[in-house]
Amino acid sequence: MEFNFSFQETWLHKTNPSLKFIIIVFLFICMLFVHNINFLINFMLGTLLLYLFFTGHPWKRLILISIPFLLIFLTSSTSMIFFGKGDTTWLKWGLVHITEESFIRGVHLGFRGIVFAALGIIFALTTRPVYLFYSLMQQLKLKPKYAYSFMAAFRLIPIMLEELLTLRYALKVRGVKNQRGVKGFYQKIKHYSIPMLAQSIRRAHRIAVAMEAKRFSVATNRTFYYQIGFTKYDLLFIFYFLALFGLSFATTAYFPYLPIEDVRYNG
Amino acid sequence: MKKGLKLTDILVTIIISLIFGLVYKLWGPLYGVVSTFGLHVEQLIYGMWFIAATVAFLIIRKPGVALLAEVAAAHGEFIFGGEWGVVTLIFGIGQGLAAELVFAAFGYKRFNVFVVSLAGIGSAFASIAIDYYYGYIGDLALWNLLLMFGARIIGAIVISGIFAYLIVAALEKTGVTNLVRPASNSDYRALD
Fold first, then answer.
1. Same domain flag for A85 and A164
2. Which of A214, B74, B87, B135 has the maximal Cβ count within 10 Å?
């Protein structure tokens, strides 16, 4: 199996992975306190801008990846739209009770989902896992035995995928048919998970023994092949989000799309 | 005996978790499709997102494994481009911590269906707590909220409790678990 996964390096690739990671987690916490849908819309546009123009990946791939965004929007919003609390009824049909408040709250949740999806994808598309773990070791003092274990494990993913395919063919060629219902579901899980897990554990054990022999588990005073530091692009990344916050606040204050300041129910 | 996890434990845990990380990633679209049926049917399969902690703990049986497994699986999902992005990591930490606490409450010495299901329920509660802030679920109509909780907890018991237990029981027959488990008291007794 070969994937063509080429892309252009942008400034997002050059930002420090740990810093990028911390900022995104920090944004997550901030977003939990945003209850104003106008602000959220502005902020969402800002993140989508970053996703569409600065990840350095080709258009086709970006569009393909963004299909699940729509699904996210639907899954995060539908329950709240149909069953949320509210007073101004739009539609009542059996159990479904759509009100203005619940609709807006649902849409707010959908947008929130999209913001995080976009931030997550931006991170995943612009960060090489190896750099992330080297940076975590150097900047955040993650223990090398964890970091190297993660990196070794990532190398095994292609082997696992190949095994999964082999397994599928093997089951097919033997004419295995799945039953329906919960029992069938369990059998399917079993058919795939047992061989996959058994093989992976054996392989992991062998690799771990080799790594221990090479002293990967020793934590003190080690040197690193990749030295990851900070650059001017880190400042750019921080300023982008600071500016986005400022702009979102300003447009929310002066040009609100909707006259709603808090989507939570207060009745 | 040295405290803490050895590199072998960590690597095996992470590799198991990455397999589940892939499953978690694939579970996202499935969850999306199922949720279009409405009435929180999708919550019945939510329990799959708790399974890494319980399976890894049952295989390796050491303190810290459940938390590491759940975080690693969430990280895997994140790196494979999971739709929920950073949110997965926060949920992973919460769910892993909850499962870990349940195993700790039994002194890391009980490995039966009951304890594993309890760990699944713990993870379910953790995810509900995070959802409370993230998804405004307090603003759902009450009957709907209870339906959601109920479905999620049932899913947690069936998938991350019972299925996880059965999978590891089947895995024990292959003999690989002996590679990574610490020696138990019965092993020492066999030497006498």
1. no
2. B74
